[in-house]
Design goal:
With 257 residues, this protein is α/β, with parallel strands linked by helices. It has one domain: Vaccinia Virus protein VP39 (Rossmann fold, 3-Layer(aba) Sandwich). The protein contains seven helices and 13 strands. Strands 8-7-6-9-10-13-12 form a seven-stranded mixed β-sheet. Strands 2-3-4-11 form a four-stranded antiparallel β-sheet, with no helix packed on it. A hairpin with a 5-residue loop joins strand 12 and strand 13. The two termini are 27 Å apart.
């Protein structure tokens, strides 16, 4: 459900990272526009849109705070009902029970819905306030504060891994996806939701799209580039769900069903 509210201040002291494309390793980019002092560019080879160069993640991670979770918690009842609809869509796909990990779990509403619908539920998030709310107010035991890679979950442990509005925040995409693959069970599914840069509803002037958020959203995928980066890790697109809104909804796994 997102990783928090980023408030990076660009100053003369800000450190910048110049990156190759995480999807195709391309090093040639076309600059698209700037927003709040940060340059948005498109990879000339695969078309991925990303902030490049971008403020060092050491600068960014320090600015995640509780504002996002506080705002989110105010809508708890509606968010839990929506979460249950999303969980049921996975059950309709064919994964009825087992272990479910929600990456970027925020205040734990997906984890709570998962638990109520019969899964063994886990969650992880970098924003501490949301995790504390999930434990103290929702009674969730298996939610932890920190980065996914730090948790050292067992190999093949999860039947479902959800990452809703998360992948666009991740500093090292290939390390992140490699970890998703390692902890996914052989017949498991990864449920990804992220802004769709190729959707017909995105403004012609992309900088006017409300999903363009400097420092917070580092990458902007479309229906081609998101499957490409998962394919680098031998994870296949097994379902692409249509959406009227500019959001990609895709399931990935080791094989189709």
């Amino acid at each position: 459900m997102g990783l928090g509210n980023v408030k990076t201040q660009i100053t003369t002291e800000t450190k910048w990272d110049t990156l190759d494309c995480p999807v195709c390793d391309g090093s040639q980019f076309t600059k698209l526009f700037e927003k709040q002092g940060e340059p948005f560019a498109r990879c000339d080879h695969c078309g991925l849109v990303m902030i490049n160069p971008r403020p060092s993640y050491d600068n960014v991670i320090e600015t995640y705070d509780e504002d996002y979770s506080t705002f989110y918690i105010k809508k708890a009842d509606k968010k839990i009902q929506r979460a249950k609809r999303w969980v049921r869509s996975v059950q309709k796909y064919g994964v009825k029970s087992g272990r479910w990990l929600d990456v970027g779990c925020s205040a734990g509403f997906i984890v709570k819905a998962v638990e109520e619908l019969g899964f063994e539920a886990y969650g992880v998030d970098v924003e501490k306030y949301g995790v504390e709310f999930a434990k103290s107010n929702l009674g969730l035991k298996n939610v932890v504060h920190g980065m996914l890679e730090e948790q050292k979950y067992p190999d093949g442990y999860f039947d479902v891994i959800s990452a809703y509005d998360v992948i666009e925040h991740v500093p090292d995409l290939n390390s992140f996806i490699a970890e998703l693959k390692r902890i996914l069970s052989p017949n498991g599914v990864i449920d990804i939701r992220t802004p769709d840069a190729g959707h017909w509803a995105v403004p012609r002037k992309m900088e006017n799209w409300n999903a363009i958020i400097p420092s917070e959203h580092l990458y902007y995928f479309d229906k081609r580039t998101l499957p490409l980066i998962f394919a680098r890790h031998d994870l296949k697109l097994v379902k692409h769900m249509f959406n009227f809104k500019p959001t990609l909804k895709m399931y990935f796994g080791f094989s189709g069903k």
